Amino acid sequence: MQAAQQPGQLLEALLGAGGDGDDAQGFTSAALQEFLHKVDVRREEVLMTLYGAVAERYMAEQEEGEEGGAAAPQGPSAPPEVSAGDAAFSAALARLGEQAELAVEDGGAAAALAALAAQHAAVLQAARDTSAIAASVRVAAELQHRLADFDAAVAAGAYSEAAWTAVELQKAVAAVPGSDDMAAAVAARLEPLQQHLQQAVFSCLSFDPATHLPTLLPSAPPGGTPDVAAAAAAASVAATVAALAEVWRALRVLGLLPQTLQQLAAAFVEHCVQPILVAEHDPNRSLSDSPAGSVASSNLSRATAAGGGRGGNSVERQLYKALKALAEQVLGGDAELAEQLGALLWPPLAAAYVNTKLRPIQPQSDAEVELYSRKSSLGAKLEQKAVALHLLPADKEGPITRHIKRALNLFLNARRNRFICAARDLLLSAATQEAVTVGVPQRAGTAVAGGPKPSRALFGAPARGQQQQQAASSGSSGLEDEEPLLACGEYAISKAAQGAVSLMRDALAEAVRSGNTALAQAMCGAVVDVAASVVALPPPAAAAGRDGAAVPPHPAAAGGKGEQPQPLLLPYPAALRHNDCHYVYQALCSLPYQFSPRLQQLVHRNVNFVNPALRVRLAGHECLQAMVRYQQAELLGLVQELSQFAGLDSDGRAGLHCRKTVQQLLAAFRRLGSVLRPVLAPGVLVQVSGELIQAVCSQIMEDIMALPDISVDESEQIPQILEPLTSGVHDAVLPAPPGPASGAGGAAAELASAMGGVRLDDLHAALHERTPAVMKLRELCELLDIRMVEIRRRWQDGRLQAIGFSADEVSHLVGALFEDTDLRRDFLRLLAEEQLL
């Protein structure tokens, strides 16, 4: 408090503000001398206090630095702050000097005060300079201390600690200005450490010239008895492993790890991988097991070593031993180090392995595929072992495995494409226009007593026992519930379809002969591709008949339209394509059983071609149905000409036109029959013909029943006009069976009475069953020419109902034929009552 009051008292005395009375001394010489003495004393006190504060702060920071340990200085310490009183005192002196110069003309006292203020400011600046010098000295001492710690860590072999110390020294030197000498000292010590660390990895590592495996050098030569020597060697190797771990940590701190790992990978490939790969093909060099005491592991699976080189040690086994020693001993089992090394090591290792081991045995024929698959599998297993050693990532496919798959796919795709190209050339050639007969004739006359009718047994749904027997004989398990496209009997196919099936058999025979799973799968794919080609490549546009000449459309199709229909809408091309698809379908269903059990062993126990078979079958069915719809539309176009039934008159011109139309219909059916009989199987011929006949006769029935009134002339002429159609439409499609007076006997008679291996009687019976409209039309023609009493009798006997007439149809017919009489009203009332029932 006294020190704070002295500047104020001094100021009052100097300015004569001590009092207002006569006793006030004022600005006298004695008073000035006294106050100058007090200023000198105060200056000495301030300086002593300042130097004491600097010394105390320096000692305190020095003690904190020693207790703090390894914390590096970030820059020069700030000088100790001058006390607020000293700063205020210096400012007061400066202002006092300025005021004294203005107030007093005599400059002696003012000059002394100004000098005193300047001296005080100089003292403060000296204090600041002293503090800065002290801070620099302290930083230099700390850096020197850390440099000594660095030297001690290097001498003790604590390389990771030395690396951290060097990094901290570099940061501290960069933060302190004017420390070039210290930076040079740090660099002079750090560069030898870096060189030593990089050389330390290879000074602890060597490659055995006999096994080409990496081995660790012992830190001290063993001695004494064998047991003692073995224990000493193990301890020495453990010490080497620990020293290497310290080296790897130091290299990671100094940022030299990628460079060192790159050098290690190059040395491993040069001194280990390449000699092992070359030793397999060099008769003067051999692969031997690791010597006693070697750190290389022999824990490789028996599958990897199977089929290896001489002495049971394959290249893959030796490479695995080398990689295991490298990962577990040289890298100390560090997974992170192994991943970084694997990223640098595995690409050149895989390239050398592929060029030396895999490319020379790349398959060129089917016989080499199995050998390549067996030997290349060792490379894939080696990569699996590398994943376990953390040298390869588990979520990515290795380069050796990728090369193996690529090489196999190239060869297998080439083999597969060979069959695809052959099928393409075959399906686009003239072989699609050449027909051959296939199928096994089935004799319908051998039906057992009590069985179904021949027509139903041939063309209807078979019984369950027959379904099971057919499934067992045809080998189409799983397809027994499918309705067959073709019934039994002979049918025609193109030579292209026959060749496509031969290609499928050749592909599967090649698969079974090779004994290789990959090739067998590729050949099964080739079978599917050939089947897809059959669907995707229809026959050429210029379809030809069996004699090679183009088959023109029947008269119904060529009747003045001005445009030719598409080839597959004509009977012969559509029927032939339908048969081709069915033939391929049957082959696809039976091929797996023809090559069992070997095909199932190579591919899968349930291998089948059901899906492509169904696609092929559907394509053939749609083609046949498109042709049937087109022919039906053409035939119904002719039926429209019969609408002039309502205009039949006595002069017969309309009747002549209708008779001509009926003859055209019969000619169209004969044309269809002559074209389809040599091509389609008997069952399909009956199915197609029955559908067309049924459509034509049903339309004629509807036209007649639509007449509101039928005159006497019309009722007489309509049966006469339609009689050739109702009696001869079946014979127009199917040949009539020979009569008993034909004179043929034995095998010749049986052959003459059959078509496609099926008796003509059975075919006619089946066709009659599929065309109930013919019988109904024939009955309608009879109803037009008989009395109403006979019509009523037939209705009451149930004959008309059995044929398919309804009460409404009979009622309309009676109303159109007969006049309104009591008998007609009574019959119509009877029909109306039955309609209500």
3D architecture notes:
The protein is mainly alpha-helical and 837 residues long. 68% of the residues lie in helices and 2% in strands. It has helices at residues 2-14, 29-68, 84-103, 107-156, 159-175, 180-203, 226-254, 257-279, 302-305, 315-330, 335-358, 366-388, 399-427, 454-459, 464-474, 495-514, 517-536, 571-594, 598-602, 610-639, 653-676, 682-705, 712-733, 746-752, 760-770, 772-783, 788-797, 799-803, 807-817, 822-836; strands at 205-207, 214-216, 435-438, 491-494, 754-755, 758-759. Helix 3 packs antiparallel against helix 4, helix 10 (315-330) packs parallel to helix 12 (366-388) and helix 20 runs parallel beside helix 22 (682-705). The termini are far apart.
Q: What is the helix content?
A: 55-70%
Strand order of the largest sheet: 1-2
End-to-end C-alpha gap = 136 Å
The percentage of residues in β strands lies in under 5%
> Measured on Cα atoms, how large is the radius of gyration?
57 Å
The major sheet is characterized as: 2 strands, antiparallel
Biased composition (Polar residues): 285-301
Biased composition (Low complexity): 69-84, 460-478
Domain ZW10 C-terminal helical: 660-723, 771-828
Protein name: Centromere kinetochore zw10-like protein
Could you provide a short overview of the structure?
The protein is an all-alpha fold and 837 residues long. It has helices spanning 2-14, 29-68, 84-103, 107-156, 159-175, 180-203, 226-254, 257-279, 302-305, 315-330, 335-358, 366-388, 399-427, 454-459, 464-474, 495-514, 517-536, 571-594, 598-602, 610-639, 653-676, 682-705, 712-733, 746-752, 760-770, 772-783, 788-797, 799-803, 807-817, 822-836, and strands at 205-207, 214-216, 435-438, 491-494, 754-755, 758-759. Strand 5 (754-755) and strand 6 (758-759) form a beta hairpin.
